[in-house]
Design a protein that fits this description.
It is a single chain. The protein is an alpha/beta fold and about 290 residues long. The protein is about 35% helix and about 10% strand. The protein has helices spanning about 30-40, 60-70, 80-85, 90-100, 115-125, 140-145, 150-165, 190-195, 210-220, 235-245, and strands at about 20-25, 45-50, 75, 105-110, 130-135, 165-170, 205-210, 230. Strands 3-2-1-8-7-6-5-4 form an eight-stranded parallel beta sheet. α2 links the parallel β2 (about 45-50) and β3 (about 75). α1 (about 30-40) runs parallel beside α2 (about 60-70) and α5 runs parallel beside α7 (about 150-165). The longest helix is centred in the middle third of the chain and has 14 residues, at about 150-165. It is globular. The two termini are about 25 Å apart. About 40% of the residues are buried. The model is unreliable at about 255-280 (pLDDT under 50).
Length: about 290
């Protein structure tokens, strides 16, 4: 993976992996740029999310998907597409759209549309029969996010995992200024620690970290193999250097001891794997 690396750096989990996931967001990047990034660094990219409802207006969607398949990068559509379909009573059409594009991962969210917890759980259970389900927790509206207590975050996360979600995305939007973050782009005080010490594995979370500041904070807290999402196409290599401690922001995290950090994240926080949930192979392009 790192043929030119002569430094002592933490070992990264290799693809296919359930930890150390890097999830990019396609907010409508040009097709040739999309292909260049995927073809240049496929070993560093686990999955691409076609943000919100951009898939509906992307003429080259099929071409982008073929590029991802060729380079063993998983993909799915943003949760807003599910929410819009649900609001228009078109969940069946949404299902057909997933099948049409050979998509094996589905995001179930309630970031914009208010959905009762029991109803969200029902959709997770239904889709998990055929798809790998990612849920998303957190509100996109900053006022709603400001009024969401930590206990509500924990309840929602555990509810989604219990319903069958294999990963839970922790909302911060493309801007990094809502959900787990305040309007200034800072992580909400106490929220990260509360989530990390609640009754599930921190490896079941994908933290939305579109900014270097957020990426640095999460890597410093949980280690190089923390799952990070909403990564810009332009930031793939820059993020990997943060993970490896070879950028100024994380330069002193691991020193030069040569310590084996292959699964460093597992030692950073108390984890408990929920019962009766299959997690291996989550980012494969096939649902077992």
């Amino acid at each position: 993976m790192l043929p030119s690396n002569f430094l002592n750096t933490p070992k990264r989990a290799r693809k296919p992996r359930d930890i150390g996931v890097t999830s990019l967001i396609d907010n409508g990047v040009p097709t040739r740029y999309f292909e260049d990034v995927i073809e240049s660094t496929p070993e560093l990219i686990d999955v691409v999310k076609f943000g919100w409802c951009t898939a509906i207006v992307t003429d080259d969607l099929g071409r982008k998907i073929e590029c991802l398949k060729k380079h063993d990068v998983a993909y799915y559509f943003g949760g807003t597409l599910f929410e819009k379909a649900l609001s228009q009573k078109k969940v069946d059409a949404f299902y057909q759209f997933l099948k049409q594009h050979d998509c094996h991962i589905v995001e179930i969210s309630d970031g914009t549309l208010d959905i009762a917890m029991a109803e969200k759980a029902r959709h997770i259970r239904d889709f998990s029969k055929e798809f790998h389900v990612i849920s998303e927790v957190g509100k996109k509206d900053i006022d709603k996010a400001d009024n969401m207590p930590v206990s509500a975050w924990i309840e929602a996360i555990l509810n989604d995992l219990h319903a069958g979600a294999q990963k839970v995305i922790l909302e911060s939007r493309e801007s990094g200024m809502s959900g787990i973050c305040d309007s200034s782009g800072n992580l909400r005080a106490g929220l990260v620690d509360s989530i990390a010490t609640s009754r599930f594995r921190i490896t079941d979370a994908i933290w939305e970290t579109p900014t270097k500041k957020l990426q640095t904070t999460l890597i410093s807290t949980f280690g190089p193999n923390v799952n990070l999402g909403n990564i810009a196409f332009s930031d793939v290599i820059a993020l990997e250097t943060l993970r490896l401690g070879i950028r100024s922001d994380t330069f002193h995290l691991y020193d030069t001891t040569g310590e084996d950090f292959a699964v460093a994240i597992e030692g950073r926080a108390p984890f408990r794997k929920p019962d009766n949930r299959r997690t291996s192979g989550f980012l494969s392009n096939r649902k077992a």
